[in-house]
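pasting for ref. prot 1 ->
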Amino acid sequence: MLRTLFFLSFGLGSNYLFNILLARDLGAEQYGVFSLALATFNIAVLLSVGGLDQAAVRFIPYFQREDSHGLPDFTRSLFVFGVIGSAISAFGFWLSSRHLIGIESPQLIAAMTAGSALLPLLTIWLAILQGHHLLMPRLWIKYCLEPGAKIGIAMLFLSLGWGALAPAIGMVAAFALALLALLCLYSRYFFHSGATIDQDSMRSIAGFCWPLIAASAFTVVAARADTLIVGHWLSKVETGQYAVALQSAAILAIVLQAIEMVSTSRFSAAIAGNRIDELQREFAKATRWSILLGLPIGLTLITNAETFIKLFGEEFQGASAAFAVLCVSQLCNLATGPANPILIMAGATRTVMRNDIFYGVAIFACVLAGTMLNGLTGAAWGAAIANSLLNIWRVRCVWNRFGIHPYSRYLLRPLGAAAFVVTLESFFGATLGTLNLFVVPSAVLLSILILGLHTDDHLLLRSWIDKQRAS
């Protein structure tokens, strides 16, 4: 898990640093325009993928275990759906960029349309690698090769004065390079001799994905509803400020993404074998680690919100309060653990669909009300409330289905450490100034260690340290 966290931190951290440079180069207004285009791009791509990546992770282990002869046909069917999704994604972005958000640059539209055609297929192929338990190649391509190529090419065109078109060109080139690398190194997992488009495979994929597609129609748009609503109700400058706050708070998502990437296949195996006790242990362990790793980062970001936002430039200073609120929301997300992957791996896609529809309605209502009442910070509070309600409800759904939850008395220790640091900060925060960047995470980690790790976590860390020494 620590190796996975390293790759995620490198990839997403590189993107974060790039966004700082991009925001400073473009300014708040142009960055706001690019953020709206990027939100529309992500909506088009994620809607077109429609759960095909989750289908790959769920069904490939099944075919490996129960019906290895059906795996080539299943993979071919995934590819066909992926090509169709790529076409839908490209057309959807082109249409919405021209008629809904009003992007005026035809070059920017053309570049991001090309990117929206490449990314769905790349997403599905990476999910196929994950389904085959090839985690390291997936991490290397997704979080090293792709961001490295994107940032390098984008910086080149930024230096030539291409403005918002530079990151779009970088994205297209990076997606193309990642697809080429997958074809050259791992084509045997995507293309099998003698494979056909099997109707049973197509029906299995469609049956699994259609509730996720229906849910995505709400959740994908809803996940970016705050940016779209801010872009409509407020100025482009404030849209750029909100985008910076949202992307900065997403640093905390690195932790849960790493844990989900490691834990999802374990959840799937435990559910397939009907080993509920094992599922309970894995769920509890994943949630403990998300809290243990997320608390030092989250409290550091919240207590130093102005310092972090200042990195993007003086134009973005108005986003510091919204940034702190969104970080609180991310901490709530970490505290509820990877509940949604458990529901998906259990085949509870209808439950996922209902949850996401509820989330879509809630975030539109909360963000709209918050934006109208209190502008940028109100939008952040609306998003935080909707996200927290969704994550709490997902844990409730896991309890209803399996009778398990991830919580124990042990979690009082990291929560007690967090309360101690918040109290310390309220008395000495102003005096410490920039030293908070070092004092807060150190105090949280030291408090957790003094209070003691969980027995399983202590054994896991000891095993990892011994392994590193041996190597």
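and prot 2 ->
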Amino acid sequence: MALSDIRDVAYQLALEPSDYDVHGTYRAKVRLAALANAPSRRARYILVTAITPTPAGEGKTVTSIGLAMGLNKIGRVATANIRQSSVGPTLGFKGGGAGGGAARIEPLDEALLGLGSDLFAVEEAHNMLAALVDDANHRGAVRFDPTRIGWRRVIDVDDRVLRSVIVGLGGKINGPARGTGFDITAASEVMAILAFARDLPDLRARLGRIVVGFDMGGRPVTAEMLKAPGAMTALMRDALQPNLMQTSEGTPAFVHAGPFGNVGPGVSSVVADRIALARADYVVTEAGFGADLGGEKFLDLKCAASGEIPDAVVLVATVRGIKSHAARFAISGSKPLPREIELEDMTALTEGMPNLIRHIENVRRYGLPVVVAINRFPTDATTERKAIREASLDAGASFVAEHSAFADGGEGCIELAETVEAACTPQIASFHPLFEYGSSAESKIETLATRVYGAREVAWDTEARAELERFVAAGYGHLPICMAKTHLSFAHDPSLKGAPSDYEFPIKGVRLAAGAGYLLALAGDIMTMPGLPADPRAAHIDVNEDGDIVGLS
């Protein structure tokens, strides 16, 4: 199908030419003025999340895009609001997050390789603040506690050797030497602020609240104190404008803000959602990894930032994903799934079903209807899909539907589209967050560990508890929690499959993200900077004689 001119895509949403700036033929930046010009909300708001995935993923983005196209097929105006791809995994093992097959964002290469300057604006703003921190430390403008400078640097490349570094070597002229490190850009607090900011003043205010460290008196040092947020906002001004693109069938798609649900919020932007909610019948958005990660953060963090509550939650499940939670399969993060997982195996499916059931139960705790979307693969047996349907309904899912968006695009998602519409009509949601925001940070962590992840108790690293107590003493104990943990298990350990219980959930670190509005708790051996696999995707990407990029999909 030929791509539509982006102006024709904008027309579907009643966006005026004055509401956006065209960047080439197939992408536009939607101006924030479109918020002021928008009518009042009329869209249904759909969150797409998933079971605990295999390392290859279970097609959550494909489902989000396919559902939006399916809704358009049945005569509804719908948008797919997805996260921007990080260049790191695009060139690493997992690949980009722009869908695939007949359900993807177009142009795909543009979607996967940074979308102009958005990711680089986040990187530049973040690292400029890091430079100001070290300059203030060098000049003595701030009497930093050298053990409590918390602002690391970022880069959008999987690079394990940058996880821990020493800066300031070479004598006094280069500043005090100190240990620090790099995170991947998607894990930056600036990226989370981009996702949560409601408008430009809110972006500026959040950037000013960033805490970069503490002084010798234990007082927080903010970006505002270093006179950084003005320049940071200038660097981020255009990045705050959502990218309007299209799906493989010309359905409008907003592609904006950060991707990593295991080390950050993992949600697309509040701004993009607000613009779309006023101009569509349905806004389909996604959250990173499983419902225990991005889904939980969407419901407990993003909803608080935006004030918008989803009308229904779509939980993506696959036959292979459920079977991967049976103990019999050896699954590695850097190798293809074993061929045996594609064979009909009702015993393995039954053994893995507790993972699906717990995810359904967790989402239902929020008072929202759950639609289980079975993403069909050609190797699935009819008996296996039937068993998933029955188990889902028994666990409390409101509806179950199958789809084949990867192979058939919007046509393969008509059943899912009709089912989602049924879940929203009449309105049967009665939303309530998982925990009270006035509760202590420690109790919030315990609630996540025991009620969502199934742990018996939290095991605190001594320094992690001490750091949390210092944040509480500084006045940040009321903030909600953003958990950083593996996406391959409910637990902290990726080898604990299914629905593990009666185990200790270890907290090994706590970081403060005051601008984004949360405390980041690090569970187990989670890394905020990935490493490359033995055979990275970068080795298979090239530019052919016609100038086309090949090897991305």
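Residues 118-139 form the longest helix (22 residues).
The chain has a mean pLDDT of 93.
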